[in-house]
Amino acid sequence: MSVITVFSATYCHADTVVEKVAQQLGYRVIDSQYVLECASKRFGIPVDKLSKAMHQGPSIFNEFTRDKEKGACYIKAAMASVIAEDNLVYHGFAGHLIPSSVDHVLKVALVASHDFREMVAAEAGLSEKDARKATAKDDEDRAVWTKFLFDKGPWDKTLYDLKIPLNEVAIDDAVATICEKAQLVQTTAKSEATVADFALAAEAELALALEGHHDVDVTCRDGKVTVAINKDVRNPEHLKDELKAIVQTVDNVTDIDIKVIPEIHEPYLYRSTKFDVPARVLLVDDEREFVQTLSERLRMREFGTAVANDGLEALNLIETEEPEVMVLDLQMPGIGGIEVLRKVKTKRPNVEVIILTGHGTKKDAELAEQLGAFAYLEKPVDVDTLTKTMKAAYAKLRKKESGD
Fold this sequence. Notes:
This protein is of the alpha/beta class. The protein is about 50% helix and about 15% strand. A 5-stranded parallel β-sheet has the order 2-3-1-4-5. Helix 11 links the parallel strand 9 and strand 10. It is globular. The model has no long low-confidence stretch (mean pLDDT about 90).
């Protein structure tokens, strides 16, 4: 009995290999969608949000929201529950979340040359151009994931027990090799204990992440959780107490050890993430020096900000990003602020928009209100007034999301 995880390039017959391995061993096949649905059901997080955390690069706001880190923690906790069941072949991204300490897991990479993959894609009906584009995009997604987790490329040999190039190895030969290796990584009482430790570490890591602590490494052995702080801090004893109190809320933890890694020499860099202020604020203004200075001042107050220097850039950003609050100038070249407000409220009605202008009129203020702007402020504005307005807009958004 064992668990096999497969991480593959696209268009290399990996699905066929996975199905044949499962049939030959009598194992069940599960994929990323299954794991995401398990995580969604358990934690109440939409599947599409979890999928973005796994398959897409970090948002421009991720430094402040840590959505990708939290998403990975949710998926890791779900994966720990999934592999408690033996006789599985998992095909997808989440296999990388299983630590090497779980030694009845065989980690397999299935790869192929670009020419081979483009040929397979063409056989599936894609044009040469579309095949090249599709394989490049898929490779980018995989590179983003392993860079995020390990700071390594997706096919780094240190990430796998077995790496098979399917442009050089026949499908049946690849299946035979995987099945043979799987017989050597059988489940034992000891390895089952490491799965339980993995699950406990995942729960502790998630608890810490939800409280804003991400610059830590969490491991577990025999119920004892070790949290390693990987950046220097001003007051390590206070931080240790805070982290310990969080981990103590996790069931089945028998002991806790909080360590500061001694080799790190970057003083005062540890910072927990604050979730009580807007973390996705888009500042839209063509006055570059003004908007950059405003962004820096808001970041000092732990607001998460990104900048767009014209209306078109702002509209392009909301296609891929999910700002919570937008601070919007009216007079800009190209697409003006009123038109941006109109389009934002059509495409992303939940975004709370604060108009901040130095050239507005009473008519502009009335029209902005009609279009759904949260507030209308004039430059120069006191930063405290602006932050209070932004917090009020954020509170309105949170209330709306909670259904109150």
